[in-house]
What does this fold into?
Amino acid sequence: MSTNALIPSHRKPRRSASSRALRAGVTGGFLTLAVTGATVPANAAEKPVSETQEMPTITTALATSAARSADTAEQVAFNYERQALQDSAFTKAAKAAEKHKAEAVKKAKAEAKKKAEEARKAKEAAQARASRSSERSTLSAPASASTGTGSTATLVAFLKAQLGKAYVLGASGPSSYDCSGLTQAAFSQIGIDLPRVSQDQSTAGTQVGLDNLQVGDILYWGSAGSAYHVGVYVGNGNFIGAQNPSTGIVERPLSYDMPTGAVRVL
It folds into this structure.
């Protein structure tokens, strides 16, 4: 054995791996690094992926957050859409309710108007029936000997209204009359057209006895067909006539000047 064999060597031991040489440079505005002479020992163990790569963990967290944000946005959009649909449905329901209410009010008014019109027509019909019934009763009932009814009352009222007016031969009113002019004007008030002169008026109707007189009978003096004076019986034993220029139109009892006869035209 050599004597130098046990003496430590002064030479540096060989490196287990070549030194890494870095060369830097700028190419196209980017910093570039070149690694030369770098060797990795064959027995060098690679670090686990879990120790060297952190990006997958960060990317998953961001994806989860983004998904949650998307879900939230979708929920908000859904809520807005649902609220819009609810508002639209409410608006439509409100409009439908208003329309229904307006139609109901219109229908109620129409019904009320129809009922009022029916009531009015019924009232008018009842009044017309009552008027016709009254007219039939007037026509069918005999005239009262004291006061008269219906057309006889109109006749007597007209004659009494002429009391005190002047007697003028040949006059037919309205301010003065002769005897036949007064009776002709009086009966024209109730639609009866008498001849103009006394002779013709004394035969214008049915002859009646003086003991059976009724209101409205025409009294005459002289003979029938050649009478010289006429008047009208007004009941209670009285008559009205245009007597003469001195008395004018007066109401007198039959005893004042008893007539010769009478005719009935009513």
Summary: The first helix runs from residue 49 to 52.
